[in-house]
Amino acid sequence: MSDIRPHEVSVAIPEPDDARLFFIGRIHTPFKERKDCPRQGSVDGPECRIEIFDPWVPALQGLEQYDRVELLYWLDKARRDLVVQNPAHSEKTFGTFALRSPVRPNPIGTVVAKLVSVDGSTLVVRGLDCLDGTPLIDLKPDRCAFTPKAPPKD
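That's the VirR sequence above. Prediction below.
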C-alpha cells in the first residue's frame, strides 16, 4: 500500500498462521466510504442493522433484555501495515497502539451500541462507526450494563 502520510512508518506483515475466526454476521450501515464514517459512534446516530448468520441465530436468545451491546467486528477494508500513523485530524504522529484508528495489525473494531430491537436474526442498533458490509466477529451485552432491563411495571 502506498497511501502513507508524512512521517508514517509501515512494516512488512507476516502471513497469518494461528487464528481462525467465524464471522457470525454482517453489519449494514449507511456508510459506504471511510470518510463517511463518524469518528466515534453516537447513540443518536442512524439506525443500523446487523444480520446474524445461521447457525448463530439461537445465540440471540435473551439479548433483547439489554439496552446496549458491545460489538466486535473485522475491519476488512483497513490496511494492516502501519506502526506509526499521522492522523488526519492532527499534525503529530502516534504509534498505532496509541490510537483508535482502524489501521492495526489485527483490524478489530469495537463499539458499544444502543440496542433498539431484535427481530429474528436481525438486530437494529444505533451508534456504529463502521462501513456497510463489515463482518461481525462477536457481540455481547455491554459489560457496564450486564444486568438486564427491569421488566415493565404494571
